[in-house]
Amino acid sequence: MPDLPLPSLDPRAALRQAAARFGFSDTPRLDAELLLAHAMGITREGLLLTLGDRPVPPAFAALVERRAAQEPVAYITGTRAFWTIELQVGPGALVPRADSETLIEAAVAHFAGGSVGGGAPLRILDLGTGPGTLLLAALSEWPQASGLGIDASADAVIWAERNAAALGMASRAAFTRGDWAAGVTERFDLVLANPPYIARDADLPDEVRRYEPAGALFGGADGLCDYRVIAPQIPELLTARGVACIEIGWDQGDSAAALFRDQGLTVRVAKDLGGRDRCLIVTPAG
After folding, report:
1. Are residues 193 and 277 in the same domain?
2. Which domain range does residue 39 map to?
3. Is the model's pLDDT at 234 over the cut of 50?
4. Does residue 76 lie within any of the structural domains?
5. Same domain assignment for residues 30 and 127
6. Distance between CA 261 and CA 131 in Å, rounded?
7. Closest alpha carbon to 129 in 84, 104, 96, 101
8. Which residues fall within 8 angstroms of residue 98, CB to CB, at 6 or more apart?
């Protein structure tokens, strides 16, 4: 029996039918819920509380078709939640991932304890800022701080500026195009970075490879090309009490850390919620 048109179904049946088409996704039901909530103009929480009270909007069918073609949910809805903020995202900007919150958690822990890291960061640098993800999350954590986000992509900088304005942080966050920290002479209490770390020949889901910007994903033959650029820059970027929190691939804990240790820096590796290596915590030696 063929599937019935989604708008003719009750919301629960429409969600089941939509989710059944998203077998490529790790979260097919969540994807369907986010799309239906977007079509209804409400939050997912609001959808779940009122699921049987509303008809399925005709627009839901088109959203399902886009997701069935493996377009990222964040590009379809135009938003993605990260840390305590909601970010606007779209083509040309890397979709924020929950794994990247490991960097913010590491920074919070650094500045919460010890005589060196105690207090709060006043100046923050975000290398490869994308849509402003890490910098704006950090600024939401430390309202007295200001920061600079750098990205090689003009599209990413546009998204970042748009997000800073929407979040009321435009006066605290500046964004510019650049080649990592080239030409930066200031020192920062906190440096955040999410470099491209995927090896050139790695097998990726279509929703990543086809839609997200390759320049934000691929880091050369071994995924470490950009780390080789960033590592020598870090000693001149950190204040004495500063820390750099740098995202890595799950299998790069040793190889990426060695590049920073070769610069005389102290390095620890933090794991994400899945127990995988995810963040280098880099501080000045001594």
Report:
1. yes
2. 6-69
3. yes
4. no
5. no
6. 30
7. 96
8. 82, 273
Mean pLDDT of 230-239: 98
Residue 228: closest CA among 266, 200, 201, 255: 255
Element (H, E) at 241: strand 238-247
Query: What residues have CB less than 8 Å from 2, skipping those under 6 apart?
Result: none
Kindly report the CATH number assigned to the domain that includes residue 57: 1.10.8.10
User: Are 236 and 191 contacting, i.e. CB atoms less than 8 angstroms apart?
Assistant: no
87 part of a folded domain = no
> Is 215 in contact with 91 (CB distance < 8 Å)?
no
Same domain, 143 and 259: yes
What pTM was estimated for this model as a whole? 0.92
Which CATH number covers residue 164?
3.40.50.150
Q: Report the C-alpha dihedral over residues 47, 50, 52, 55, rounded to 10 degrees.
A: -60
Same-domain pairing of 183 and 273: yes
Give the whole-angstrom CA distance, residue 81 versus residue 6. 27
Per-residue pLDDT tens over the stretch 186-213: 999 999 999 999 988 888 898 999 999 9
- Output the pLDDT for position 1: 35
pLDDT in tens, 103-138: 999 999 999 965 455 689 999 999 999 999 999 999
Asked, for residue 251, whether it belongs to a domain, the answer is yes
Distance CA 83, CA 5 (A): 36
φ, ψ of residue 63 to 5 degrees: the values are -65, -40
Distance of CA 244 to the CA centre of its chain: 16
Taking phi over 0 as left and psi of -120 to 50 as alpha, with beta for the rest, 55 belongs to: beta
Q: Which two tokens stand for residue 78?
A: 């135009």
